[in-house]
């Protein structure tokens, strides 16, 4: 059982979790193919199609988008309500914080910097001549890889599994939630509910803090 009185690790998904958008859908908007890509994204998040293969299909149609155009999506960064406050709370408790995303490093690294996270893991888009090539540079960060990175970070910081919280919203977060001591379905697809120890339905990350305190007690260090 998670003990908020001791240091731990909290890992967040990025798209539709720490931020309110699906970045790949917004890049597709720049490429003029958002409806098609959004439909595939939604199916993948519901677990209806393989995330890894669907990601490669979606990225392929983004070829030719200027890398500089990505800035349009992230000015300002569309953080989910409560993101800063929840991360600060965990940090005040002495917890490590990380984002592990099936999205892209271009966005995840900026989220890491703004929130002061200890680590960021995501897929890397290939860029040539300042344009996306439509290729993801291996290795792919898919559902199983997300879980593996969670285990790796916990080991790196000598944090036991029961002191790891994973927060996600879609089917590709299932292995990550299963690898954690506490799995949280945040404003999630119903597909994720059976695998979650906590379900947070409002799109407000501070609701998670309140549920944690209610379940495990008020931490000593704040």
Automatic annotation (TrEMBL):
PANTHER family: PHOSPHOSERINE PHOSPHATASE (PTHR43344:SF2). Pfam families: HAD. Keywords: Amino-acid biosynthesis, Hydrolase, Magnesium, Metal-binding, Serine biosynthesis. Its cofactor is Mg(2+). This is Phosphoserine phosphatase. Pathway: Amino-acid biosynthesis; L-serine biosynthesis; L-serine from 3-phospho-D-glycerate: step 3/3. GO terms for molecular function: L-phosphoserine phosphatase activity; magnesium ion binding. One of its GO terms (biological process) is L-serine biosynthetic process. Its EC number is 3.1.3.3. Belongs to the HAD-like hydrolase superfamily. SerB family. GO terms for cellular component: cytoplasm. SUPFAM superfamilies: HAD-like. It catalyses: O-phospho-D-serine + H2O = D-serine + phosphate; O-phospho-L-serine + H2O = L-serine + phosphate. The active site is at residues 13, 15.
